[in-house]
Amino acid sequence: MQSTLFTIAEPNRFNIIELLKKKPRSVNELVKELNIGQPQVSRHLRILSEAGLVRVNRKAQQRIYSLEPKPFQELDAWFDSFSQLWEERLDQFESYLSNLERKE
Amino acid sequence: MQSTLFTIAEPNRFNIIELLKKKPRSVNELVKELNIGQPQVSRHLRILSEAGLVRVNRKAQQRIYSLEPKPFQELDAWFDSFSQLWEERLDQFESYLSNLERKE
DNA sequence: CATTTATATACGTTGATGCATATATATGTT
DNA sequence: AACATATATATGCATCAACGTATATAAATG
After folding, report:
1. Residue A26: its pLDDT value, please?
2. Which residue places its CA closest to the C1' of nucleotide C21?
3. What is the Cα–Cα distance from A18 to B61, expressed in whole angstroms?
């Protein structure tokens, strides 16, 4: 799951993911919307594919790429586990407030 | 927010974050729990600090590092935006099911 | 079957990043 | 003030990953 994060963090791959989140696209569509060459797009798609983040569907000569939900679910869950962070801080703030009250 | 992701994706920084999530720690505590040298830990903490992911509190010679909640909240929200992915798939599955029923 | 369109791969170059070693700074202790 | 502890920074080196160019494969079309 940590390697998933690494894969997503690369700026171009991040942009590809943002585009694919809206709707599946062919390689050429991605090339037009990004500012990198076709070989780079193909290469990043390959990396995303090997990481299990996208799936491919053939349509004539085109390859239509779309996002694979599972890894994103996992990361979503991981980031949820940080919610304790701000909840604890809120608790601390509340006990600070009740201390104030006691003093008054 | 994308740069935040990039900062987190580095394996050692990821581990540091996992440790700090449990509780704040001094540099030396982190050094003992990770398999890298003190200068590297300090360097990664600096990067995390500049990215606004951690805060420092001095305690004698020690520097106690802890996580800053905001950026994690942001990423949590970003990954939530992917939930549409699997919900849509679920919708498709459901309409597929109701199609089956109609045919029967 | 030759050509066009769509995509993938190979290769060399370059820039970024992490590490180890050495050193600097800051605080505490005697 | 001298020394010890805790942390930060500087530097040189090695590795890795992304890019561009060129080329290969695959499918459609005339």
Report:
1. 97
2. B39
3. 44
Q: Judge whether residue B39 contacts strand D, using its CB and a 7 Å cut-off.
A: yes
Give the confidence band of B87 by pLDDT, cuts at 50, 70, 90. confident
Give the residue from chain A lying closest to B76, CA to CA.
Answer: A79
Say which residue the tokens 């010679």 belong to.
B61
Q: What is the CATH number of domain B2-103?
A: 1.10.10.10
pLDDT at B37 over 70: yes
Q: Is B96 on the interface with A (CB under 8 A)?
A: no
Tell me the CA–C1' distance in angstroms for A46 and C21. 39
Domain boundaries defined on chain A: 2-103
| Amino acid at site A76 | D
Instruction: Give the closest residue to D6 (Cα–C1′).
Output: B61
pLDDT of residue B100: 60
For the sheet with A62-67, list strands across it.
A25-26, A62-67, A54-59
Q: What is the pLDDT of residues A47-85, one digit of tens each?
A: 999 999 999 999 999 999 999 999 999 999 999 999 887
| pLDDT for the residue B36 | 95
For residues A41 and A49, the answer to whether their CB atoms sit within 8 Å is: no
Cβ contacts of A91 on chain B, cutoff 8 Å: none
Q: Is B90 on the interface with A (CB under 8 A)?
A: no
